[in-house]
Write a structure and sequence with these properties.
heterodimer, A: mainly alpha, Alpha-Beta Plaits, two-stranded antiparallel ribbon, 6 helices, 4 strands, B: 193 residues, mainly alpha, globular
């Protein structure tokens, strides 16, 4: 009995000590990611369309953190530029027309009887929202589509349309309060007033 | 002093862990496709093997042996090795991002490498002392690195060679490893410990 007990206790003690060492090391040597990149990335629309000239939203977020202009995101439009400007405390600048213009929320729709099943749009889609196989008709999963229009260009028969999605009761969200002219919280209005 | 050199020669050439004792074969076949990754893996293994053979020796000598718990050596060594590797990974990640980029992905892989556990167990079996354990672990790692780098260099050449279809891919790799193993048998009898 005592043999078993001592064995169990020894292993338990070892495990506790090692666990403590690792736990301590995890806190002590914690690697800080770049939190500003995460914050910028969360403000970008995540269309992964590449219209900004970067291969996706995350690389563009990293570039913004390193001083890139904030007006290169057409899908996000003026609202994204405004929130980015607030976050980074810089002046909001108009959208750079070189990278495209704001079109509102869109989805791609394949005119299915014209589709020849070449799979070119599937390869172009950055978020795998197009379903299909070679010589089979393809279709777009509308819920997944971010409206980046990267699939329009490669289509050899031009059977993909970008359709604007009107705002419905389901898709409407409350506008960002940062745009409002007045401040809701009293202390924000007048910083000197502290209770 | 000669004894330590003999241990090194023995573990690197005569009792090579990969080709003679057949330990650590998974990374030997797995990460030998490119010379660069093979070198990264070799460096990481050298580091971990030396460190873990010391730590497991200490754990055995000052914890298990006094308590008469020698039969717990395997599970204890696994625990010690896992913690050492994990701790190293955390520290390296913090202190040297460059080194982390070179070794980073290999470190967790090594935790489950049988050569690491094999060295720890053989140290006890051979009743190696403290310095001998370090030498044994280091020698095993150098032997592993030597063979891995040689093998990956050969595989890079084989990749572009005109190999008959049935032998392409892993098959020719296995045959090459077998031939290397035969070649290393030539060192038998060089030293004997």
């Amino acid at each position: 009995m005592s043999i078993i007990l001592s064995a169990v206790l020894t292993l338990l003690a070892l495990a506790v000590i090692f666990g403590a060492i690792l736990g301590f090391a995890a806190i002590k040597f914690k690697v800080e990611g770049n939190p500003i990149v995460d914050e910028i990335d969360s403000l970008l629309p995540q269309t992964q369309c590449g219209q900004c000239g970067y291969p996706g939203c995350r690389p563009y977020a990293e570039a913004i953190a390193n001083g890139e202009d904030i007006n290169k995101c057409p899908p996000g439009g003026e609202a994204t530029i405004q929130t980015l400007a607030d976050l980074l405390d810089v002046e909001a600048i108009p959208l750079d027309a070189e990278h495209g213009e704001e079109k509102g929320k869109q989805v791609a729709v394949i005119r299915e009887d014209e589709c020849i099943g070449c799979t070119k749009c599937i390869q172009a889609c950055p978020i795998d929202a197009i379903l299909g196989a070679a010589k089979q008709m393809h279709t777009v999963i509308a819920d997944e589509c971010t409206g980046c229009d990267l699939c329009v260009e490669p289509c050899p028969v031009d059977c993909i349309d970008m359709i604007s999605v009107p705002e419905t009761i389901k898709s409407w969200t409350w506008k960002n309060p940062k745009d409002q002219a007045f401040k809701i919280i009293a202390t924000d209005r007048n910083p000197e007033v502290r209770v | 002093m000669t004894e330590y050199i003999l241990i090194l020669v023995s573990t690197i050439l005569v009792n090579n862990f990969v080709l003679v004792q057949f330990l650590g074969l998974c990374p030997f076949m797995g990460v030998s496709n490119k010379l660069e990754t093979a070198i990264g893996m070799s460096l990481a293994t050298t580091f971990v093997l030396t460190l873990s053979s010391v730590c497991s020796y200490l754990a055995f000598e000052y914890l298990l042996s006094p308590l008469g718990l020698e039969y717990l050596q395997t599970i204890t060594f696994i625990l010690v090795i896992a913690v050492v590797v994990q701790f190293t990974e955390i520290v390296v990640r913090k202190t040297s991002p460059l080194l982390y980029r070179v070794l980073g992905i290999f470190l967790p892989l090594i935790t489950t490498n049988c050569a690491v556990l094999g060295v720890a167990l053989l140290n006890i079996k051979k009743q190696n002392g403290f310095v001998e354990s370090i030498m044994y672990g280091f020698g095993a790692a150098v032997g592993f690195s030597l063979v891995l780098v040689l093998f990956s260099a050969m595989r890079e050449r084989i990749a572009v060679a005109d190999v008959p279809k049935p032998f392409q891919g892993s098959a020719i790799g296995m045959i090459t490893a077998g031939l290397m193993s035969l070649a290393f048998l030539g060192f038998t009898g060089l030293v004997n410990i």
